[in-house]
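Lecture notes, continued. The same structure-token format from the folding unit now serves as the input rather than the output. Read the line below as a description of shape only.
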């Protein structure tokens, strides 16, 4: 059978995937950062890489963005091979790095103008596009201010706006909200949600579980350079976690295994608390009290992606 393929802007995109990897690997000397992963990113979706620092997320993103060559496996981006067609791919990508690399001595507007010229766009086109992007990033009133005194959230929004100057088909965002306060994070999420509505394909790396749940249609969980699970946030939670989680904290020693046996489907013992995975957290809490357990505090919550990661890797997302 011949695999299905589509043509987008002159590039052949096989199997309907803008990014397709099979056995993709990246080694630095004897260290294998990415260990033979398979993935497909479909047009129009927000695809996420979830995992702690050192999981291989950024190394994968650098290969997809054609700035770091693969050392094994196959990779196509926008239907092209990064090894031989890197410049053509980069012309149609938008990249938001972990650290903002704006020109601090230039104004907000000048940052957009200068970056647009790197793509060979006309001055008239860049000026018109900059007006549109300043509105999108909510930076119109700061357009003629220098970048240096801007807040972290404003700089991050400008970095994202700059990455859109060439109308990319695919936008890569590496830890887009690291270091931002909650208000700035939510504003940035809103901007990214608008891009999804416009049909821009997003690839996002993050170690924030709430960010992955909010932004991603589908994601992979990475650990130690491997993909350990794949699916939508809801699918992963349903597959690897219970409906509710009961958190118990104790000021004295935690109870022994016999004291909590049968209270939940599964129990995770963390340094600061016990996690009881159960279909009914309140019922498990009542049963714990009936056994004479007296936690200093208790919390019943829904299962999350952090619970999924703990189940798959034996550690929390922030380890």
């Amino acid at each position: 059978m011949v695999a299905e393929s589509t043509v987008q802007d002159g590039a052949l995109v096989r199997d309907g995937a803008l990014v397709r990897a099979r056995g993709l690997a990246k080694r630095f000397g004897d260290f294998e950062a990415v260990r033979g992963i398979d993935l497909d990113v479909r047009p129009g979706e927000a695809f996420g890489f979830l995992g702690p620092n050192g999981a291989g997320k950024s190394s994968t993103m650098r290969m997809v963005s054609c700035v770091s060559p693969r050392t094994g496996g196959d990779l196509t981006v926008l239907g092209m091979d990064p090894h031989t067609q890197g410049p053509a791919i980069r012309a149609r990508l938008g990249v938001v790095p972990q650290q903002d690399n704006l020109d601090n001595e230039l104004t907000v507007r000048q940052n957009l103008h200068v970056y647009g010229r790197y793509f060979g766009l006309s001055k008239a086109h860049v000026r018109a596009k900059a007006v549109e992007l300043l509105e999108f990033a909510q930076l119109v009133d700061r357009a003629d201010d220098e970048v240096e005194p801007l807040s972290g959230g404003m700089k991050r929004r400008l970095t994202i706006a700059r990455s859109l100057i060439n109308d990319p088909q695919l936008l890569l965002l590496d830890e887009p909200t690291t270091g931002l306060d909650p208000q700035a994070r939510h504003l940035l999420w809103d901007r990214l949600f608008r891009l999804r509505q416009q049909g821009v394909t997003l690839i996002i790396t993050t170690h924030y579980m709430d960010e992955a749940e909010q932004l991603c249609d589908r994601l992979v969980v990475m650990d130690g350079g491997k993909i350990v699970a794949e699916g939508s946030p809801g699918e992963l939670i349903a597959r690897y976690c219970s409906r509710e989680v009961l958190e118990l904290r104790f000021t004295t020693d935690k109870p022994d295994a016999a004291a909590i046996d049968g209270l939940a489907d599964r129990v995770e013992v963390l340094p600061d608390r016990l996690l009881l995975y159960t279909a009914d957290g309140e019922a498990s809490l009542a049963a714990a009290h009936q056994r004479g357990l007296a936690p200093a505090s208790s919390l019943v919550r829904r299962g999350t992606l952090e619970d999924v990661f703990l189940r798959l890797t034996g550690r929390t997302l922030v380890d």
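Point for the exam: The chain has eleven helices and 15 strands.
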